Automatic annotation (TrEMBL):
Highest taxon, organism lineage: Bacteria
Region (Disordered): 22-49
Ranges annotated as spanning the membrane: none
Organism: Arthrobacter glacialis
Residue spans of biased composition, Gly residues class: 36-49
Protein's name according to its UniProt entry: DUF222 domain-containing protein
DUF222 domain ranges (all copies): 127-304
Length: 340
């Protein structure tokens, strides 16, 4: 049995000795030659008293090789190939983590620093993809209890599953449920999950895909996925969401009336406290009355701005200092108060 590192193979006995030594005093005495913390060739700072602590690494990639790894983390774009992309170097989570650990950002050139950022984002995507897979697996192990009233969305998962995640992540029940729902969506998109695990889609694009598929029946996912996935890794997130919604509109066999009634069931209003005595009030409403409400607010706000309604102060040119957004917010409060 051996543990294989980038530069050499060490036996299980050597590895056990190394771990026991580090666990005992935080130093590197007894480490095999060429292993982290053992002197020349080891990772700087992995010995006694280092801030790195017990981080273990088997080195073997020199600085130039590590730079090539972070360059390899950026895939070539067919229409814009990169001249300095190293041939024969394949990015993996292991080599990527090694490069990010051992390279210091302040030693890199501007271009390599940008590649370092990409490498970090790609490694984070890999970790997040694995987390989503674990969440999906966890959900399968928590079927609803007999006395539960199942949720409309994903009724096969217990309501208490989110409660366990609350404790793990120290988050609210709603946020925990969102994570489970996101994991379920990703599990129904196998090709998307594969690209996410390879770091070729990041969390931002995954969220964009999730938003685009809101209120879309899951049995339509296999039709849509091959249509929206090509080029998704380089697409603006908002544009990706719009593309998916257009595709869903085109390929959804349900009538617009059916989709509207299902979406309308999700209407809600929420309140979020903000610092310094402020708060955020949000709502999801049917489009027609929501547009009418906003147009009314906008009309009132523009009229108040033109009339120079009382403001907190004047600008140097004598114009009211409130912005249109300020007027919209004030008119919104006025409109709500007049309803009582």
């Amino acid at each position: 049995m051996t543990w294989v590192g980038p530069s050499r193979t060490i036996s299980a006995d050597e590895w056990a000795t190394l771990v026991q030594t580090l666990d005992g005093d935080g130093g590197s005495a007894g480490a095999p030659e060429g292993v982290a913390g053992s002197g020349p060739g080891g990772v700087a700072g992995s010995g006694s008293g280092s801030s790195v602590g017990h981080f273990l690494s088997v080195p073997g990639l020199e600085a130039d090789s590590l730079v090539r790894v972070i360059r390899a983390s950026v895939p070539d774009h067919p229409k814009a190939p990169r001249k300095n992309n190293p041939a024969g170097v394949t990015w993996t989570p292991a080599t990527g983590a090694e490069a990010l650990t051992r390279l210091e950002p302040d030693t890199l050139s501007d271009n390599d620093l940008l590649d370092y950022l990409h490498a970090a984002n790609r490694l984070a995507a890999f970790a997040q993809a694995r987390e989503m897979e674990a969440l999906a697996e966890f959900a399968t192990r928590r079927p609803p209890l007999n006395e539960e009233t199942p949720r409309e969305q994903h009724p096969e998962v217990s309501l208490w599953a989110a409660g366990e995640l609350m404790a793990v992540y120290a988050i609210s029940a709603g946020t925990a449920q969102h994570r489970l729902d996101d994991a379920a969506t990703l599990a129904a998109l196998p090709s998307t999950g594969t690209l996410f695990r390879k770091g070729l889609l990041d969390q931002t694009r995954i969220h964009a895909i999730r938003r685009g598929l809101e209120n879309v029946p899951e049995d339509l996912f296999p039709v849509l996925e091959p249509l929206f996935l090509p080029g998704a890794s380089r697409m603006n997130p908002a544009g990706l969401t719009r593309k998916i919604r257009r595709l869903a509109q085109k390929h959804n066999p349900e009538s617009l009336t059916e989709r509207f009634h299902r979406a309308r069931a999700q209407r809600r209003v929420w309140f979020t406290p903000l610092p310094d005595g402020m708060a955020k009030l949000g709502a999801i409403l049917p489009a027609t009355p929501a547009l009418a409400l906003f147009q009314t607010l906008e009309t009132w706000a523009l009229q108040a701005q033109r009339d120079g309604e009382p403001s907190t102060a004047l600008t140097p040119t004598g114009r009211p200092s409130r912005s249109l957004n300020n007027y919209l917010a004030d008119c919104f409060l006025d409109l709500i108060h007049q309803s009582f």
